[in-house]
C-alpha cells in the first residue's frame, strides 16, 4: 500500500484512520478538507474555486506515495484511479452522526488541529450524512466496482481497529509524518 484513498461519510473516522495509517506505514497524509478550504487573510476560510480545486487535487494524487482522506465526489474518480488501495468506511448514518457529535464536542467549532480547518457542523451537513446511504453510497459502490485497485470495506469501528492492528508498526518510533502544513496547502493554492 503506497497510494491509499480513505473515503466514507462525514463522521466515519476517515481522518483518524488516515493519520494512523500514515504513521504506521510512513506515508505522507493529505486531508482533502485541509486543501479544499483556503485560509482568508485576517482569519476564516473560503472554498476553493472549481478550477483551483481540480489543479490542487491533481497535484495531491500525482505523488508516488500518500494517504488521502476525504470525499469531494466530483474528483473522486481521479483519486480512485490513482490509488493502489481504497478503504471505504461504510458505517451507516447513525454511527457517522455519533462521530460528528463526538468531534463537535471535542473541537467546539474551533479549528481542527489534525487537518487545519474549522469544525463546521451545519443543518446541510447533517442532512448530507443522513442521506449519504441513499444518495452518495450507491455512486461510491459503482465507482468501486469499476476500480482496478484493492478495495477494503470496513463496516464498524471494531473492523477499523482490527484492520489497523494488522498493519505494521511504525518504523520511525511512532512519530506522525507528512501532515501537510497550512503553508504547503497555500503553496498549492497560490504557486
TrEMBL record:
InterPro entries: Cytidylate_Kinase-2, P-loop_NTPase
Name of the protein in question: DNA topology modulation protein
Pfam families: AAA_18 (PF13238)
Top-level taxon: Bacteria
Source lineage: Bacteria, Bacillati, Actinomycetota, Thermoleophilia, Solirubrobacterales
Amino acid at each position: 500500500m503506497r497510494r491509499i484513498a480513505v473515503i466514507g461519510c462525514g463522521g466515519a473516522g476517515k481522518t483518524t484512520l488516515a493519520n494512523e495509517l500514515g504513521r504506521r506505514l510512513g506515508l505522507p497524509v493529505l486531508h482533502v478538507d485541509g486543501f479544499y478550504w483556503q485560509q482568508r487573510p485576517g482569519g476564516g476560510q473560503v472554498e476553493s474555486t472549481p478550477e483551483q480545486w481540480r489543479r490542487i487535487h491533481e497535484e495531491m494524487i500525482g505523488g508516488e506515495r500518500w494517504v488521502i482522506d476525504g470525499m469531494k465526489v466530483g474528483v473522486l474518480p481521479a483519486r480512485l484511479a490513482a490509488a493502489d488501495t481504497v478503504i471505504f468506511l461504510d458505517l451507516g448514518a447513525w454511527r457517522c452522526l455519533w462521530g460528528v457529535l463526538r468531534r463537535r464536542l471535542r473541537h467546539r467549532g474551533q479549528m481542527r488541529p489534525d487537518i487545519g480547518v474549522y469544525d463546521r457542523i451545519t443543518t446541510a451537513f447533517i442532512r448530507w450524512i443522513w442521506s449519504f446511504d441513499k444518495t452518495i453510497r450507491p455512486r461510491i459502490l459503482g465507482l468501486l466496482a469499476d476500480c482496478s485497485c484493492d478495495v477494503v470495506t470496513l463496516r464498524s469501528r471494531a473492523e477499523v481497529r482490527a484492520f489497523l492492528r494488522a498493519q505494521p508498526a511504525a518504523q520511525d518510533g511512532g512519530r506522525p509524518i507528512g501532515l501537510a502544513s497550512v503553508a504547503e496547502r497555500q503553496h498549492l493554492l497560490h504557486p
